[in-house]
User: Fold ATP-grasp domain-containing protein from Cellulomonas oligotrophica.
Amino acid sequence: MTEPTARLALATCAELPDLDPDDVPLRDALRERGVPTDVVVWDDPTVDWSAYPHVLIRSTWDYTDRPAQFADWTRRVEQYSTLLNPADVVAWNIDKTYLRDLEQRGLPIVPTIWLDPERNLNARAIHTRFPAFGDFVIKPTVSAGSRDTGRYDAGETPSRSLAITHAKNLLAVGRRVMLQRYLTNVDAEGETALVYVDGEFSHAVRKEPLLEGPYRAGEQEGVLFREEVMSPRDPSPEERAVGDAVVAALAEVFPDRAPLLYTRVDLIPDDEHKPVILEVELAEPSFFFAHSSGSVERFADAVAARV
Ligand SMILES: Nc1ncnc2c1ncn2[C@@H]1O[C@H](COP(=O)(O)OP(=O)(O)O)[C@@H](O)[C@H]1O
Ligand SMILES: [Mg+2]
Assistant:
């Protein structure tokens, strides 16, 4: 039983009982602002969430195999406490089908073909949806840390076979699948993560490309996330414009919730080098504080103002 000592709980997973190292300075910055924190494992049944007036989700990354349990947990916490960000926002954000909502609002997303498990697609039906040439990506709509994600080569028969197996295995366990062309400009230009705090741009980082090859069963067993290589980044005006437009769209989707305490917008360059949305993180994003001076203080100020 975790005895509550603070009024703000930072939710993590059992594998990271002391948070992700990137979040450690956050505890110090909050303490300096008179906000001591407890680090609490989200699915620890002994935790009394009513002891915490506020709960901030941090490194809860082991939920992707049981998203319904995680969504239930957020709703349960909200019965006793204020969750930052709120449960309805988290529920919307857990499954990348939210990208369709953003697309409908005119935002540029990575072109995606969606495969629903209910349709019982056979190997041939999956295969006909692959691009005719070039590399492509298969990933589940519920994921984090590049888990269960693979890159394939449409020009290679063995690679296509592996892709079919990967997609079929995900669909067989009821998971929705995304099929995207691999946007090769990410190799030279990297991915850009823009972090907004209270709806205001805070900082950005560059993430190196992560996908080299097919998903291999077992390879990621027990691995919480793929190692990421980050560096500071000054976003281009085009990237800032897309990030700002996402924040504006979220204020329309969640008018009672805006501005959200935090929003992370991940962009990659398309074939014309235009930034397109890879994902938007409103649940448990890393903020990469170590790569931007002042960012942890800014975030801690925003949290302190809300608790
Ligand atoms: N269509 C794509 N083109 C290029 N790289 C991709 C594509 N989709 C995914 N990736 C790579 O895989 C990583 C993980 O994919 P992402 O959609 O961000 O899922 P996750 O929620 O697991 O982070 C990305 O950071 C990127 O490097
Ligand atoms: Mg990602």
Remarks:
- The longest helix spans residues 237-253.
- The CA atoms of residues 207 and 230 lie 5 Å apart.
